[in-house]
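User: I want to check something. If I give you two sequences, will you return the structure for each one separately, not as a complex?

Assistant: Yes, each is folded on its own. Here is the first sequence with its structure:
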Amino acid sequence: MTTISQPTQEEKLDFKKVLPIFVIILVDLLGLTIIIPLLPLYAASFGADPVMIGFLGTAYPLMQFIGAPLLGGLSDRFGRKPVLLVSQIGTLVGFLVLGLANSLIWIFIARVIDGLSGANIAAAQAAITDSTNEKTRAQGLGLLGAAFGLGFIIGPIIAFVSLGLSHNNYHVPAFIAAAFSAMSILLTAFWFKETLAVEKRGMKKRENLLVNLSLALRKPVIGTLLILMFCQQFIFGAFEYLIALFNLNRLGISASGNAIIFVFVGIIIVLVQGKFIGPWSRKYGERKLIFAGLFLLAIGLTLTSITPAQTLPGYSKEAVLKELSQNTSASAELAVPIPENGNSGWLGIAWILVAMIPTSIGGGLLSPSINSLLTKNAIGDVGGTLGISTALVSAANAINPLIGGGGFKLLGSTAPFLIGGALMAVLFIAARSKLTKV
């Protein structure tokens, strides 16, 4: 029986160095994860259909696509701390605008503000890289994923509790998210110590995004990994954004129920990225973890697409409509079909929870494994390369809500997930062919 060997001192992650980064990003992400389960339903309460909700999903990553590479490059030139502070202030303003929103246009404005300053993760990834070596980098980057996972546990719980205490007022979680964003600013200002030494700053003159992207794509390994990052996020991002609408349409699950499902997903991601990815990367290497992530996502998305249309016992269509309508002063008509009363049981919710297991494990493996390989091949330009990676993720997230939302509306709720599972399987085959020498 094969056993995982004990790591040497060089292979052990220095938690004292990465703990401040982890905590700051976790607190910052709590704001985001409080909002994620609610945002599509928040927009739907103003009468937005799946296509318009897709446009809303595009607003944040499209603005992040513009802002993240610039701020990622600036973090190489001026340090990680000032970039983190600027991006966090923008996030705070975005959440405050979202909490005050009284129409769909203000929700769009809030997401634009937040997206333009969305370099938090690129700067944090660069700070992790500064604080790790090649043997501990996957585990270090995995901790950022674990922060996402913890955020997806704690954030939706906070959303669930705040919705319960406020009688399903969607504005309240936005203000709570703003409070967490303000806390992350204070932590960055007074606890975080700059990780990029002065003598290492400004090592490379920055060109514009298209020039940097063109140069990066010409490098065989880095180019392949960047394309892989974009493609997998194009597919998986549509799942992330549409799953709340899918659950509403297929199972009649509204904001509180979706929050609990996000908690379940978060627990799995925390276990994968906080506990297992370190020893797995040492034993198998990032390349095999990428393959495993793609394969599991293909299975998970396919299972999600065929979730039985069965509501939970006690479901009431009238109660769901009342919850959604009370969050807008406009007389908006719900544009997302929801189930009729009857046909209740436990099969539907059990099925979606089972489907979330391979989906969450696969999603938890991919991003840190791809970024770890990127940093090992981007010597002297880590911040810029991670900025490009973040920009490509943002570009994928800017496109997939539109295509996914359009497919959801025109072809039904099954289509985006079934097609996504098939495309992820194709991506798995292509990756095995291209990533043979890394």
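And separately, the second sequence with its own structure:
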Amino acid sequence: MRIITVGLIPVLLLLSATFAYPHKGSKVELRIIPDRGGTFLTIPFEEFKKGNTSVIKKYLEARKSENYTILIKNKTPDRIGVVIAVDGRNIISGKTSYLKNNERMYIINPYGSLNLEGWRADLNTVNRFYFTDEEDSYSVRTFKDSSAMGVIAAAVYKEKDRPREHFKKRESKKNTFRAPAAPSDTRDSKSLEGESAGTGYGDDTYSPAVRVHFNPERTPIEKILVKYEWHDVLCNKGILKCGEKKNRLWDDYGFAPPPPEYVTR
């Protein structure tokens, strides 16, 4: 699932990066940014260690038809590689992702950040992410795959000793890493929210990338998993407390309690 291999070194993708200040805590910061402004409600779920990998799980309240961007900031002084999957599909290749180190990944410079806006179509174009019903999602419409529906996942890999650049730049055939296009867009025909939220294959947008060498370590240092759901689903699962708010005067059907230390005669 690598783009090109020179020796043992995968040739991967790099987007132009802006720089962020380092923070304590996890190795990366991952945020889901809505196009319409504001923020998505995010609820921490659990954090644990699995071998040498820190795992962070969160819930996110999705908004129907909202385009979104995955923002990732590198908090370390080293280059890192990040495998990113949406609904179980690698966002560069469109292939089934298990967040492994042999998959296509984005490279982030020390203390840099990336804005990932969609499914990679070629070195200059992505098709936008947007929240939609499961049936309209890229994963289901294109691959009939709902095995990891509603999950935005990132696996962070450290780089092995960087080799010296003694190779000639190779040109590959156009779109050799392209994510397969989804069927014609039907997002406007969806009127009811399904039980599960998914991510669609939206409008294309300019997003330049270049190929670079990166040799990842075998296991990730961190995984971040964001499970996004519609508001009603989060309520039904008890992730959000969505019961009706009581009126302190109208809804009190109790009786007058006795004062403290009152003795019944």
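Because they were folded independently, the notes below concern the second chain alone. The chain has a mean pLDDT of 83. The longest helix spans residues 138-143.
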